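Hi all, long-time lurker, first post. I run a small reading group and we've been trying to get comfortable going from sequence to structure in the token notation. Rather than ask abstract questions, I figured I'd post a concrete chain and ask someone more experienced to write out its structure so we can walk through it together at our next meeting. Sequence below, copied exactly:
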Amino acid sequence: MKKVILDTNFLMSIYQLKIDIFEEINNTLLENIEFYIIDKTKDELEKLINTSKLSDSQAAKFALKVLEKKPIKVIKTTKNKLVDDLILEQNGYIVATVDKELKQKLKKKKIQILTIKQKKYIILD
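-- Answer (accepted) --
Happy to help. Here is the structure in token form:
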């Protein structure tokens, strides 16, 4: 069983790129998968709804709806840190992100990354 953490911008790409990230991740990993988010990801999405340009706001709203409908587990955290820093502290997960800075940090820690290429394919990096 593979465990995959979905970061905020990856969730928003569902709306922005019209891509079914769940199906694509399943096609990429070809294994049973448990999806996770960091608890503060929901807070980040709610903040984006109120403070971002219209397209990002709509993407954040859509991502929150997806979180309600899909079987995604929540990793509870107690630290008051940025979501990216909390993701970096997790062990035993593959991280799904399109954030360049986060990808660099994950690579340094030798953590596997799922990312989107050509706005339609998900690859394991």
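A couple of things your group might point at:
The longest strand covers residues 33-38.
Residues 54-69 form the longest helix (16 residues).
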